[in-house]
Amino acid sequence: MKFLTILVAASVAIATSFTSAAQEPVNLDELLNQLQQGQFAQSQQNQEREAEFAARSQEQERILREAIAERERLEALSDRLETQFEQNEMELTGLTDALTQRMGSLRELFGVLQQVAGDTSGNLQNSLTSAQFPGRSEQLDALAQKMGSTSKLASIEEIEQVWFTLQQEMTETGKLARFETEVTQASGEKQTQEVVRVGAFNLVSNGKYLELIPGTDNVAELVRQPAGRYMDTAEELQTSSDQVVAFGLDPTGGSILGLLVQAPGLMERIHQGGTVGYIILALGAVGLLLALERFVSLTLVGNKVSRQLKKSEPSTDNPLGRVMTVRDKFPQADTETLELKLSEAILQEIPKLTRNLTFIKIISVVAPLMGLLGTVTGMINTFQAITLFGTGDPKLMAGGISQALVTTVLGLVVAIPMTLLFATLNTRSKNVVHVLQEQASGVIAERSERGQ
To answer: Quick check: 361 and 422 in contact, CB under 8 A?
Structure first.
């Protein structure tokens, strides 16, 4: 009974696996019926699978036969092409030998032509004439590559083109030409404008120097322009028609101009002086203002004193008149008293005449000392850079050396004019004081003679 139960359970499981849609059996008859139907369905599925497998096997055999046939066809084609390639190699070798024999000395000629075309192409890429005649280097470069890579011979037209390009370059080198082209401004904008080409040396437009970007035939404005005197000649050259104009020509085609524009200007030199340089310039500006004020004041006072010398009546708008009024205030004073009063009046006028002269003298002394301070500071920075980075790169030391030299120059530039101004102004003030003392001595002598 137990064995029968296990058999029935296994039959139910097999029937359920092949008949998923079957319902739960009610009794043993239905279970037997379902088991029979499941075996029938399984047998039918196996037959279908066997038929499908047989069909696929026949298809694979067909594909295999086709692949074998294709392989045999390609092998035959490969043999045929190899035979043809060998024949072509032999024919090409024979033709090459025949070409070499027929060319003779012309082979050397075309070799020289290829070399000249390549060298000329490189030269034209850096030539300023390419700005007016673009595209020449590309043609020569293509000719050189064709003759070098494919061993093709140059035609008569191509040979004449090389000759024409060389002759054109020689001719244009000695000309001053005007033409319209697109110029890249320093701001990055592109604008079509008139360009003046001075041989193969310089390009100018709108009073500014231009440069040719190598390998592109494009013209760009120099970001940094040379000094003003060169700019004036460039503008004069562009505006002139047939007149002879003095022009700053660069015979190197731009090398000297490139170095010239890298030279720092006046403001850049001043900035290199750093804080000490600014202080020196500030002292120089203050001293210059004080000297200008003293110069104007002493000039006016000197003119008033000169006019007072020509008049007998004293006037209080000048030092001499104010000193002379002392004589009129004390008409009955004795000689010694009058002398003391006049000396007192002169002493009162001296501070007004010598005002700020001492400060100008101090500036003339302090300025070179400040320059020496900047020199020492710059050298300290230079030695620190040498300690950290060594002496391999001079640019690392350039900043300290520039500060050392520039501050020294600024100190001397301020001190020398201040010294000359102080000497001039001090002489003017002493001349006025000398006039006052001379006139006072004359008054005392006159009073003394009257008393006797």
So the answer is: yes
